[in-house]
Automatic annotation (TrEMBL), chain A:
Pfam families: DUF997. Keywords: Membrane, Transmembrane, Transmembrane helix. The chain crosses the membrane at residues 12-35, 55-79. The keyword Cell wall biogenesis/degradation does not apply. The keyword Transmembrane helix applies. This is Sodium:pantothenate symporter. It comes from Bhargavaea cecembensis DSE10.
From TrEMBL, chain B:
Keywords: Cell membrane, Membrane, Transmembrane, Transmembrane helix, Transport. One of its GO terms (cellular component) is plasma membrane. NCBIfam families: panF (TIGR02119), sss (TIGR00813). It comes from the Bacteria. Pfam families: SSF. The lineage of its organism: Bacteria, Bacillati, Bacillota, Bacilli, Bacillales. The chain crosses the membrane at residues 6-25, 46-66, 72-97, 126-147, 159-181, 193-217, 237-256, 276-301, 321-346, 367-387, 393-418, 425-445, 451-474. Belongs to the sodium:solute symporter (SSF) (TC 2.A.21) family. GO terms for molecular function: pantothenate transmembrane transporter activity; sodium ion transmembrane transporter activity. This is Pantothenate permease. It is found in: Membrane. One of its GO terms (biological process) is sodium ion export across plasma membrane.
Length: 91, 491
């Protein structure tokens, strides 16, 4: 039993939690940037994509698709499978 | 009575009912000490799909299906923008609590959130405060959803409020009581699927009825150009206010006990990975569709003044009656799936955290079983009786249920997991400051308008963070050893 060494699974967990924070931050910046960056123009200057106002299309529709794609990439390539039950190194 | 709507709803209720009963039979085989784990956590064996759906369904309540779209109807695209802050919950909660919570919960043999906090902080005040917060706030939240469910049935079917409440209560109570958490999770999965399909069908129906998206937007602009801006119909939906919903309905959801407890119920990391993807997609689709439906309904059916009625009215207007009945099973599903999760959570808190901790620690399996079924049934019945004629106190407490619980629990959970200097002093201070400042700021905002232009939840979450750090460091600086407790031993 290695009581002094940090469980290797915790390193995985900590890294993945940080990735979660990073994704949320990116998600927020994208959402906020397009919504208020493009949405603050006068309505007459809006263009429309698939019928929707451009700021909304980029902020919410593209933003949602982008973040879904990122979640898939992150989970497939950066997340590691770890056992949840205790490992019995020394019995 | 509108039979073409009633029949699909009734079929839906019967299907849910039998799925609940069916999944409970799996639990009937389990005996001995595993009964509690099975009844309150589904034996920690949820797969990815069911996990994702139960998280989304628990979270998506009356407000996502009735209140939110109703507000989008009056406010326009600004409110859809606000609602999209919820996509983050689809991945954030599971990524943050994630593997560490799953591992620690198993190591502590924790079945409830309170179990986890008890083992991590080893402190009676933490247990009592958290159990009390869960019982009081979630009990009121449950009653409020229950009332919403009955009102919906009433408005759709033309039954009286009391009959509607009775039908609603009996169907939920039976499967939750006998089936426990597994029945809740499996029925949530079905309800979640109904929610997704219902929103897609209804959005398509609305777009067709409105003559295409461009046409609808054109009508909105000519009625009031503000409807297509991010700033709301009157132009007073501020950036700071909308952004603060990222805390209330976004990242703060980590602190909701009914969501956190699901993060200890899954089988393995593969389930969690699948749930991350499915959860993100499903949350996004539901939130985007429902709120767009709210906005798009405006030119089609102008002049609806009760927000909650927008979705039922537009569904019955643009869809054939039988299809409207199926689609309107979606908000019903949302309400049921929230109510059942809250019921099993409050019951687990009473049985596991109060009864077994303080009243009868040496109860045998039969007594535990009887207590679990009994408490669930009795709690459900009390909520039913209260909902018949809701007391003001209940409505009042429900105002604090969501944000108040977030402010109370987010830091004790998150910092307890990841910060080794987190200790019981910090946790107690954080919970008291969180709930206390939430109530104080709620009244301040009601009287004077929003402080700093942000939602009530923002400051309490920050203040409870500061309180946690300061009290942890000042009272006792001692690193917590996450390795100290091995499987089966609780400090």
């Amino acid at each position: 039993m290695s009581n002094n060494k940090t469980d290797w699974r915790f390193k995985v967990a900590n890294r993945e939690a940080l990735i979660g924070c990073g994704l949320a931050l990116l998600n927020f910046v994208w959402w906020f940037g397009f919504a208020y960056g493009m949405g603050s123009r006068p309505v007459e200057e809006y263009s429309y994509i698939l019928g929707m106002p451009d700021w909304f299309f980029y902020s919410c529709v593209v933003g949602f698709i982008l973040i879904t794609a990122l979640v898939i990439v992150v989970v497939k390539f950066f997340f590691k499978e770890v056992p949840f039950e205790e490992e019995e190194e020394t019995q | 009575m509108n039979w073409s709507v009633i029949i699909p709803l009734l079929v839906f209720l019967i299907v849910i009912f039998f799925i609940g009963i069916w999944s409970s039979r799996k639990g009937a085989k389990v005996s001995g000490g595993d009964f509690l784990q099975d009844y309150f956590l589904g034996g920690r064996e949820l797969g990815g799909f069911v996990l994702a759906m139960t998280m989304v369904a628990t979270y998506g309540s009356a407000s996502s299906f009735l209140g939110g779209p109703g507000t989008a109807y009056t406010m326009g695209f600004g409110w859809v923008l606000l609602a999209m802050s919820q996509v983050v919950t689809g991945y954030f909660v599971l990524m943050i609590l994630g593997k560490k919570f799953a591992i620690m919960a198993r190591r502590y043999r924790a079945l409830t959130l309170v179990d986890f906090l008890k083992a991590r902080y080893n402190s009676a005040p933490v247990v009592i405060l958290s159990a009390a917060a869960i019982i009081i706030f979630l009990f009121s939240a449950m009653a409020a959803q229950w009332i919403g469910g009955a009102r919906l049935v009433e408005s759709l079917t033309g039954m009286s409020y009391h009959t509607a409440l009775f039908v609603f209560a009996v169907s939920v109570l039976v499967y939750v009581t006998i089936g426990g958490f597994r029945a809740v999770a499996v029925t949530d999965a079905v309800q979640g699927a109904v929610m997704v399909i219902g929103t897609i069908v209804l959005l398509a129906g609305v777009i067709i009825a409105g003559g295409g998206v461009s046409n609808i937007i054109h009508d909105l602009v000519s009625e009031n150009p503000n409807l297509v801006t991010p700033f709301g119909a009157d132009g007073n939906l501020g950036k700071a206010y909308v952004s603060s919903f990222w805390i209330l309905v976004g990242v703060g959801v980590v602190g909701l006990p009914q969501i956190a407890v699901r993060s200890m119920s899954y089988k393995n990391s593969r389930s969690m990975h699948r749930a991350l993807i499915i959860g993100t997609v499903v949350t996004g689709v539901i939130m985007l569709n429902m709120h767009l439906i709210g906005v798009f309904a405006r030119p089609i059916l102008p002049g609806i003044d009760v927000g909650d009625k927008v979705i039922p009215l537009i569904a019955m207007d643009v869809l054939p009656a039988w299809l409207a009945g199926i689609v309107l099973a979606a908000p019903m599903a949302a309400i049921m799936s929230t109510v059942d999760s809250l019921l099993i959570l409050v019951s687990s808190t009473v049985v596991k955290d109060v009864y077994l901790n303080y009243i009868k620690p040496d109860a045998n399996v039969r007594a535990i079983k009887r207590a679990s079924f009994g408490v669930t049934a009795v709690l459900g019945t009390i909520v039913y009786i209260l909902a018949l004629d809701p007391p003001d106190l209940l409505i009042f407490l429900n105002l604090f249920a969501f944000g108040g619980l977030e402010a109370a629990f987010i830091w004790p959970i998150v910092l307890g997991l990841y910060w080794k200097y987190a200790n019981k002093y910090g946790a107690i201070a954080s919970m008291i400051v969180g709930i206390g400042s939430y109530i104080a700021i709620h009244f301040y905002n009601e009287a004077n308008g929003n402080l700093f232009g942000v939602h009530t939840v923002t400051l309490p979450v920050l203040l409870s963070f500061v309180a946690f750090i300061v009290f942890s460091l000042v009272m006792k600086q001692e690193a917590y050893d996450y390795e100290r407790i091995r499987k089966g031993e609780i400090a």
